[in-house]
Design goal:
heterodimer; A: mainly alpha; three-stranded antiparallel sheet; B: 325 residues; mainly alpha; 15 helices; globular
Chain lengths: 487, 325
């Protein structure tokens, strides 16, 4: 069979799709239960939270597109048998193909038409000169870059803004029409309510956010067709492309880490709190032991070990990407194993409280088995803690990735991530004039992701259990990774 | 009190044994010494003799736990576990890859680490608690909301940004202090000023917000109402009564890190080239010097447990109602 591509399911992809499936299941399940829907409705009414959710959704879309991997088919060789490329590409790579393939020789500033460094070139008359050479791709369509560049960029940016405004108006119309249809109201009335911010869900704020995102990113997309909007890095790769590719790594670390630690924390936390006795003693001993090792050091030690293991077993990986991906998964596992203790302790305390409540006592009096009490009566009642812990951990983990990559125990150096971007750009600060765009791009994207995650997490926490903040968001808990890293 | 401390210290022993076993498993069982040798000597073209020699030099050529070929007590003592992991209990850390004594290095590097970590800790605590009390004073107003939003913003910025940005602006643009480096004695202050400042700024978001929630939980208690009813000013209420009563949660988070200050901070020290334990650890990680990393893991756990005990003692100082039994 000659498929034009061969789908590749990297290990983290599989887990991401599993996570998406689980989330979809829960959405379906929660929609059918009024008491579960109530706190989510509260989240949906939170202005800041919903604005953050819109931005987060943008990141998630990029991350999901970047998680559908395949290997394109190569042209048939002489024997007539077609092979597949060694490089694993993602759907995002295809969408960004121009950005990915058009690399320059080395650094170039954002929107530049010339390289950042002078080079000796042979002039047509045979003499040599030190000049800034033209870029191979950035601004190549300009006949006379010095005079035309500013005008061309402005023209393209204005076109982009115009398209964004048009698209936004269309979206506005669709939203209003949809809302009017749902509420059986007239379009005009719906529009008035939306515009005055009288709707229950903050549609106005969400639409304004989308509008702002569109006016920023549509012109960037249009400019990116002809320029390197955020410049290029040391080996001439487009920084915008690198930043977009880094999003997936951040999302994977932020979500999968808590996902892999959940079973541990849930099982051990509930068992310790409910069964008590020697089970409690052993579980407490385990997490005190793990907790007493400074987080960064345990992570560093574990990563060094998996690295050594992977170096001595190269036969396990078919492609470079698979290798890097497995290392990412290991990193998530290690971060998860070192960070489940905080959640475990919370769950233990909560289970201890729940086990003394009347309904659990009644269940026990009826002869319900311990296992059934734990799964039917305790587990659903601690799930809100799990949810809050998951969303609150996310931003800390994204930030931790950058630090760990700097320490040298983060993701694989070949993998795009904010940490590797910062790490590569860090040394260029000393250059004169400075190469600032890689750092700015990495920090900017990271700030957007983490800030929106933090705001969304706050909304979720306020809706589910506002009192938990004192116990959960303590600096000791958040800075588990930074205990040795921060001052 | 004494009895309690003895019990706590006894309880620490199984935990330290656990830590020791865990690190041993990580460093020697998950990864055989052969793999370590290959990694140290370079992946390709390593002869078996070279591996054997490397292992012999470091004493890694023995069995892991039990040596059947030895005589008597040597069956247990002539093993990697006994030679490498057990001495950690009396702080005999052995030698690094470059042949230096690890314990000596640790003693020499504690000073610089402390010189940066201690000011950050003390000044940071004071600043965060003051900010948080001020936000509690203005609770419910725009000042409070803006403060919380600023905290969230500060939390969302990577710590690396503060360091890189600070070095660029203060050292490179304004030329106020050296970019990095260290000097012995009092002249170290100009090297320590910027990293200390950045350390404080880096923690401002998360900590201030956390202290604010602690204070807000206290602020509606009965004793606060009584204090107000007596006619005390809001400032007196906050700084005199609320602060003292919020001491327990504050101490829970703060005292435990005091012993860990000795370990320094990995990132700050390596960016500012301060020869403390943090940069020592980073170098060890980059050079894959397992002996040093193992020593630091063990030392970190010991200090953490000391911190936990100190926390309990500090409770009795902050709240006379608490007695350790």
């Amino acid at each position: 069979m000659n498929m034009p591509f061969k789908p590749v399911l990297l290990s983290t992809d599989a887990l991401i799709f599993l996570l998406v499936a689980v989330i979809l299941f829960f959405v379906w399940y929660i929609r059918r239960h009024e008491h579960l829907r109530a706190p989510w409705k509260k989240v949906a009414r939170d202005r800041r939270g919903m604005v953050a959710a819109v931005v987060l959704a943008g990141f998630v879309i990029v991350g999901l597109l970047d998680s559908m991997h395949f290997r394109p088919r190569l042209a048939a060789d002489t024997s007539g048998r077609a092979g597949y490329a060694i490089d694993v590409t993602s759907v995002l790579d295809v969408a960004l193909a121009p950005l990915r393939t058009r690399s320059e020789k080395t650094y170039s500033a954002p929107l530049a038409t010339h390289l950042f460094a002078k080079e000796t070139v042979q002039l047509p008359d045979g003499t040599q000169a030190r000049v800034f050479p033209r870029l191979v791709h950035g601004g190549r369509h300009l006949a006379n870059p010095d005079t035309d560049r500013a005008g061309d960029i402005t023209r393209r940016a204005i076109t982009g803004v115009a398209i964004a405004v048009l698209a936004w108006n269309a979206l506005l119309l669709i939203t209003v029409a949809g809302l009017a249809h749902r509420e059986q109201a007239r379009m005009q009335e719906t529009w008035r309510r939306l515009w005055h911010g009288e709707t229950e869900t903050p549609w106005r704020e969400m639409l304004v956010t989308i509008g702002l995102l569109l006016t920023v990113f549509v012109p960037i997309a249009i400019l990116a067709a002809k320029y390197h909007v955020l410049g290029t890095d040391k080996v001439g790769q487009d920084v915008l492309y690198l930043a977009l590719k880094s999003i997936r790594t951040g999302l994977v670390i932020g979500t999968l880490t808590t996902l892999v630690m959940l079973p541990f924390a849930l099982l051990l936390g509930i068992m310790a709190g409910y069964v008590r006795g020697w089970v409690d003693d052993i579980i407490q001993y385990v997490y005190t032991t793990l907790n007493s090792i400074p987080g960064v050091l345990l992570i560093a030690a574990s990563v060094l070990m998996t690295q050594a293991y992977m170096d001595s077993h190269p036969e396990l990986f078919e492609t470079v990407q698979q290798r890097a991906d497995l290392r990412l998964l290991f990193l998530c596992l290690i971060l998860g194993v070192t960070s489940w203790t905080g959640l475990c302790r919370l769950l233990r305390g909560e289970s201890m409280k729940l086990r003394e409540l009347e309904y659990v006592q009644a269940a026990r009096a009826f002869g319900v088995s311990n296992f059934r009490i734990m799964t039917r009566h305790i587990l659903p009642n601690v799930m809100h803690i799990v949810l809050i812990a998951v969303v609150m951990d996310f931003s800390g983990l994204v930030l931790a990735e950058a630090v760990l990559s700097y320490v040298g125990v983060g993701v694989d150096p070949t993998m795009n991530s904010f940490g590797t971007m910062i790490n590569a750009a860090r040394l260029e600060m000393a250059r004169e004039p400075m190469v600032w765009w890689s750092l700015a791009a990495a920090f900017g994207f990271m700030l957007m992701l983490v800030l929106s995650a933090n705001l969304f997490a706050d909304a979720v926490r306020d809706a589910f259990d506002p009192r938990i903040r004192g116990r959960l968001a303590s600096p000791a808990f958040l800075s588990k990774y930074f205990r040795a890293a921060r001052g | 009190m004494i009895q309690y401390l003895v019990r706590r210290i006894l309880y620490a022993i199984p935990i330290l044994i656990g830590v020791n076993l865990l690190t041993f498993l990580l460093f020697f069982v998950v990864n055989a010494p052969d793999d370590m040798a290959r990694m140290q000597l370079g992946q390709k073209r390593v002869t078996d003799e070279a591996v054997q020699k490397w292992k012999q030099e470091r004493g890694y050529d023995k069995p892991l736990f039990y040596n059947p070929s030895a005589q008597g007590a040597d069956k247990v003592t002539s093993t990697i576990f006994y030679a490498k992991s057990v001495p950690l209990f009396w702080f005999d850390f052995g030698h690094a890859e470059d042949g230096r004594d690890i314990a000596h290095e640790i003693r020499a590097r504690m000073g610089p680490s402390l010189a940066i970590a201690l000011p950050v800790f003390v000044a940071g605590m004071l600043a965060y608690i003051t900010f948080a009390l001020l936000m509690a004073l203005f609770r419910g107003t725009y000042i409070d909301t803006a403060g919380v939003l600023l905290c969230v913003l500060a939390m969302s910025i990577s710590g690396l940004f503060y360091i890189i940005g600070g070095q660029f602006v203060v050292s490179k643009l304004w030329n106020l202090v050296p970019i990095s480096g260290y000097a012995d004695g009092l002249s170290a202050w100009k090297f320590l000023l910027l990293p200390a400042l950045i350390g404080i700024i880096g923690g401002v978001g998360a900590s201030t917000r956390w202290y604010r929630t602690i204070f807000l939980e206290e602020i509606n208690r009965d004793y606060v109402r009584t204090a107000r009813a007596k006619g005390l000013s809001e400032m007196r209420v906050l700084f005199g009564h609320v602060l003292r009563n919020a001491m327990i949660p504050i101490l829970t988070g703060a005292v435990v890190v005091i012993p860990l200050l000795f370990l320094g901070s990995l990132i700050t020290e390596s960016f500012f080239a301060i020869p403390g334990l943090g940069s020592y650890t980073i170098d060890a990680i980059n050079n894959q010097d397992f002996a040093v990393v193992r020593a630091m893991v063990f030392l970190g756990s010991v200090l953490y447990i000391v911190g936990l005990i100190l926390t309990d003692i500090s409770y009795t100082l902050a709240d006379p109602r608490i007695r350790l039994q």
